[in-house]
Amino acid sequence: MRSSALVVVSAVALATAVSAAPVARATAVLQSAAGGKVGGTITFTKAEGGVKVAAHITGLTPGSHGFHVHEFGDCSAADFTSAGGHFNPAGDPHAGPKDAKRHAGDMGNIEANQEGVADVDYVDPMLAFEGPTSVLGRGVIVHAAADDFKTQPTGNAGGRLACGVVGATKAP
Asked: Does the annotation count 160 as an active-site position?
């Protein structure tokens, strides 16, 4: 793990540990890969049955794009490989978001319209703000291609177009 990832994860862990109230909301602001134009915000909110994932992402090519939580909250590498692989604390195979056995970070595909905009709004039962499936301090990656839900361990989703670090935010 790169030292910058340690700092980000450690800072999030420390802030969470000293917080008076449990985390109920977190946000990741996407930064685009060099020369790219992908941007947006992903909000994670504690919800009945898991964590609600809501996103508005722009600058995409029309069509499907893999959408995953990755191991590390480190977007420092130009190609975002510093975020590591898919977040997979249970060691399960890569699969689709509705499969019982999957990486915790397998959020499936987002669908960009003809203007390059993708909106997401669903509850993910595998994500949390505490314990082994906590998204805090992790990276969120938007990929160039669609996730095929089969190829191990990545879904063959192509290059990394954008990256954001999930950090605790004040609940509304």
From this structure: yes
